[in-house]
Amino acid sequence: MLTTQLATPGRGPQADRPRGSGGTIPHTPARPMWFCRVDGQPWPCGEARLLLVVEFRDNVSGLTIYLAGLMYEAMRDLYRLNPHDGPDPKELFARFVAWGAARRPAAEKAE
User: Fold this and answer.
1) Region annotation Disordered: residue ranges (predicted)?
2) What percent of the chain has pLDDT over 70?
């Protein structure tokens, strides 16, 4: 029997990226459904992904950490909305995190 309880995790990062430019509406998620505010696609939509890659071009690790935090927030929201038939964790990982780390093969990184 465990004698200690783990603390409840706090809120993850604020979904405030990618930022809009020139008066355009940013491609940020509409919570708790996690759809893009601009085009209605599941967030991160294609445009948001492109903008995030540009914004974090010199900080791939930061992008991965940011996306992992948002995946946690999405899981929290989506499971709260539908606890009996929530989203598949593998699909959420592919949607939020997996695409951000794919830059180039590991063999090329060693050079």
Assistant:
1) 1-29
2) 70
User: What's the CA gap between 36 and 47, in Å, rounded?
Assistant: 10
Question: How far apart, in whole angstroms, are the C-alpha atoms of residue 1 and residue 3?
Answer: 6
Collapsed DSSP state (helix, strand, coil) of residue 103? coil
The mean predicted confidence, pLDDT, of the chain is 81
Where do the H-state alpha helices sit in 1-111? 46-55, 60-81, 89-93, 99-101, 106-109
Supply the pTM of this predicted model. Answer: 0.73
Name the token pair of 55.
């914004």
User: Residue 7 and residue 29: Cα distance in Å, rounded?
Assistant: 27
Please state, in angstroms and rounded to a whole number, the distance separating the CA atoms of residues 95 and 86: 15
Digit-coded pLDDT (tens) for 21-64: 666 778 999 999 999 999 999 999 999 999 999 999 999 999 99
CA–CA dist 31, 37 (Å, integer): 9
